[in-house]
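Record 1 of the preview.
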Amino acid sequence: MLRKKGRWLVIKLLFFDMEFANGRVVGSVYSFGYLITDENFRILTPPTDLLINPACEWNEYVETHILGYPKEVIEAAPEFPSVYDEICGLFSSVDLAVGFSLNNDIRALRADCERYALTPLEYSWLDLERLCKRLDVHREAHGLEGCFAAWCGEPIPAGRHKSDVDAHMTASLLGAICRQLHVDVTMLSVAYPTCVGRAEAVLKPTKKKNEEKRRPRRRRHQKGKRTKETGAQ
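->
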């Protein structure tokens, strides 16, 4: 983010979403959808979906209900290392990355980097799901579809579960929130600090639960039986 007069300014936004081949395989990303806008939500880079071969076993439910592309098209796509530089460039070119329910996405990006011995990405993020839960308006809405319908008042776009479509919905949702509350993204980031964070390349070390400091053992002095010495006269 850019700093001006002691305040952080959000100038450029990356909206992104990912889909996973198998929820039990952390880092099984098969699509990375995104678009880039300016602070007024004018699209600078149109919605795009990067297809990635997850190189793992597919979850049956994902194949049946989630997968928005023919499976053979996904498996013919390059693996994560081939799109790593492109994804790094996207995050480094913006001030803030925005997604909906980001915990799994953040964890999966790091896992894929570690899986292929690549440096984890660094970026500032805003989780729109957390934000919607903290706002006083449309608290009854849940999930991306529910929040989009409540705030945007539009039909759900065709192609749900395609990452570029979900990323575009996320951008429309944040734009609607800013317009209706008469705020900008910088103001939201300051007002709701628990909804923003930073993904670091190097994780801070944490102490293990069972880790204890070893204290030096004290030497115990064994008491021997005292005996009287007698001498012959």
